[in-house]
Amino acid sequence: MRARLARLPLPVLLLGLTGGLALLPAVHALAADDMDVARGFFYSALVLLIVAVLLGIATSGRPRGTNPRRHLAALAGAYALLPCAMALPLLETIPDTRAVNAWFEMISSFTMTGATAYAAERLAPSIHLWRALVGWFGGLVTLIAATAILAPLNLGGAEVATGRVPGRGILGAAQIGRAEDPTDRLARMALRILPVYAGLTFLLWLGLLTLGEDGLSALIHAMGTLSTSGISGPTRLEGGRAAIPGEMLICFFFLFAITRRAFPGLQPARNRAPLLADPELHLAALILASLTAILFLRHYFVAEAANIETGLLNALAALWGVFFTATSFLTTTGYVSGHWIAGEAWSGLGTSAVVLMGLAIFGGGTATTAGGVKLLRVYALLRHGERELERVIHPSSIGRGGAERRRLAHEGAQIAWVFFMLFGISIALAVALLTVLGVRFESALVLAIAALTTTGPLAEFGTAQPIAFAALSDPVKAVLGLAMVVGRLEMLALLALILPGGRRS
């Protein structure tokens, strides 16, 4: 069975899995006695499964290629086509909806952006579950692709650690033979990652249930945390019954979006290092500690100057709200603590939009579900700056930390800077397109960063007045959907796919 499935193209296999996932909301709606929604999901699942089987039969006889770029092209095709298939249950279950809105909802969920064009009260609980399932499935696909497709091609942040040209395979991989076959590697990593990913989601769900959250909200927030989609159901996180203990538990699981070393099964045995020695974890701790202190003191001193009664408990709650929200946006999840809003009201300063956008741009760790630039690239540039200052003081120095650190500060920093430039160009192009389509510049900037960093809640908390995705025109939604795919796949991977292989060799 595994050998037969391995012969199928990746988009066909993912389409079949999508059909299987659609059965879960059907069962949930059936248990909730919502027959219309259950029927819509069941019929959609049957259609998707039948189409997947027919496509599988039609493509099963094709020869299996060994070019690793084939799976990269298949991954890009999956992000282009799967949201259309995932939108089918929404068209069957949401009254008076349009195909564009359903497609936007699914591409936002599948890329783990978490932007929504529907009011929460308009959607049935089973539809909220479907949104969370699509985001969770997108996180699983991202983890598998990062380790089995992007890393062997020196993409997705691996190029910073290796110092090799992005898009080129690992040196000597061609001589290894079938053990390094891209399809076999993809299947092996999927079987390794899925149990751990599902197990962590189950543990977080169980923990939130224990802390008083209701079953559906706990499951949606657990899937939204592990996938960093930031999707909420009928009840938002800040309005949940788990309160601060639930936020603390979720904050602990943000660790898996900050560093891949915390995720069992992602780190090769030959490169295994202590978790506390991870540079991405060190940088994230520095960023979060600095910003939490700055924002808390900002709130505190303004409240003191205005003679507003603070109190120790209010101050501690505001401190936690700042730390949790900063961690959430650094991992591009976008959950907001209820005490973040209380802290803003306490000081009267309003939203810290620039801070939240900056955190989302930094992003989480490489080979995780987080978006953004990624912490390892920022760390490489910091090390390069430190090395340049050291050379100014001691021109004859050769650098400390061994060959790996020197490679990170030199070749890795060069590639990281190229990525920063491409990321900045992507933001400029997205903003230009949105402004041409009639969006105001401030809103266009927030929307472009939210899409490219896959942090949908920025549209609500990144401006003084929340931006409603439902009010955007269809061309604007199309541009944002394309930007979400670019932000998830990264521009370097798309360039490696588009440029001829001979020019990179």
From TrEMBL:
<dbReference type="InterPro" id="IPR003445">
    <property type="entry name" value="Cat_transpt"/>
</dbReference>
<feature type="transmembrane region" description="Helical">
    <location>
        <begin position="349"/>
        <end position="373"/>
    </location>
</feature>
<keyword id="KW-1133">Transmembrane helix</keyword>
<comment type="similarity">
    <text>Belongs to the TrkH potassium transport family.</text>
</comment>
<feature type="transmembrane region" description="Helical">
    <location>
        <begin position="283"/>
        <end position="301"/>
    </location>
</feature>
<feature type="transmembrane region" description="Helical">
    <location>
        <begin position="478"/>
        <end position="499"/>
    </location>
</feature>
<feature type="transmembrane region" description="Helical">
    <location>
        <begin position="242"/>
        <end position="263"/>
    </location>
</feature>
<keyword id="KW-0812">Transmembrane</keyword>
<feature type="transmembrane region" description="Helical">
    <location>
        <begin position="41"/>
        <end position="60"/>
    </location>
</feature>
<protein>
    <submittedName>
        <fullName>TrkH family potassium uptake protein</fullName>
    </submittedName>
</protein>
<keyword id="KW-0813">Transport</keyword>
<keyword id="KW-1003">Cell membrane</keyword>
<feature type="transmembrane region" description="Helical">
    <location>
        <begin position="189"/>
        <end position="211"/>
    </location>
</feature>
<feature type="transmembrane region" description="Helical">
    <location>
        <begin position="415"/>
        <end position="437"/>
    </location>
</feature>
<dbReference type="Pfam" id="PF02386">
    <property type="entry name" value="TrkH"/>
</dbReference>
<feature type="transmembrane region" description="Helical">
    <location>
        <begin position="72"/>
        <end position="91"/>
    </location>
</feature>
<feature type="transmembrane region" description="Helical">
    <location>
        <begin position="313"/>
        <end position="337"/>
    </location>
</feature>
<keyword id="KW-0472">Membrane</keyword>
<keyword id="KW-0406">Ion transport</keyword>
<feature type="transmembrane region" description="Helical">
    <location>
        <begin position="132"/>
        <end position="153"/>
    </location>
</feature>
